[in-house]
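Batch 3, record 17
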Amino acid sequence: MLKRYRRQISIPGWGEAGQEKLARSKVMVIGAGGLGFPVLSYLAAAGVGEIVIVEQDWIEETNLNRQLFFSTGDLGKPKIEVAVEKLTTLNPQVRLSPVAEKLSSAVGNKYLPAMDAVIDCVDNFETRLLIASLAHRYHKPMIHGALAGFLGVVAVLHSSFGPCFHCLYPEAPEISPPAVFGAQAGLVGSLQAVETIKYLLGIGETNFGKMLLIDTESGFFNWIDITKNNLCPNCLQMDTTPDSIDRPIDP
Amino acid sequence: MIVYFQAGGLLKDYIEPDVDAYTRKIELESGLTVKEIMERINLRPALVSLALSGGKIVPLSYVPRDGEVIVLRPPVQGG
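Prediction for the assembled complex:
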């Protein structure tokens, strides 16, 4: 069982104990597209025990420049179906739980309490704000990633230890769908996978309260400090998920 | 005084760089906030999600010093 992980077990601080820890880990990945492809691929290849995948879209031709799970022959198929098939082939030891629905509070309430982390691989602010509310409700880290052209962002957010996504963006800004390309999505998603694995293993800096800003056009890579917004409704313990009325904040 | 605005992505087109491909030199009176300087060059604040000085986030109410470089970042949402 451990042979396939031999090259990573030899990393200082990882070891067989770390590999067993990964095998016991559970993560929820929201989105199986441009960011979801590298995140899911690397987490499955590394041997994360269980991955809940939330994705409701169908494969379109415009996905094919960056969503490398999918080929021309897959057009029109459900993304989650093809992604699960590819990931199962990649590493049959990983338990995959596909959820072919749009993320909602109900989906989050069902799966997130048992998870160790939630990884944001979506393409819009509205869903990210919902992920952040759910992550806050269940005290889970949200590994955030996003891109636009040559720009990228990665952040490990945990409202118990630093700012949450709502602190940074109280409201969804009005912007049009960004231009995106595969290598940049691969870069940002790979960094999200790295930060997730570091968090699950407890290796190195968790980077809570930091955000990596990337501009690959100019070569700008910079971790910056980010701080809690004292007026953030999420961090002030107000449940900001849409169906939060009469629902306790803690599970 | 002089303030430099630096931006990547689509924001470059809005700041109209003149120092290099990413940087605009702006000559103006002192005491203006980042937001006021943005308005001076017809850059809508809604296009900017973060302003940075020296690698740290500053609010749009921040008043830059002479010669300071302010890095502007647009919202990034793709996935």
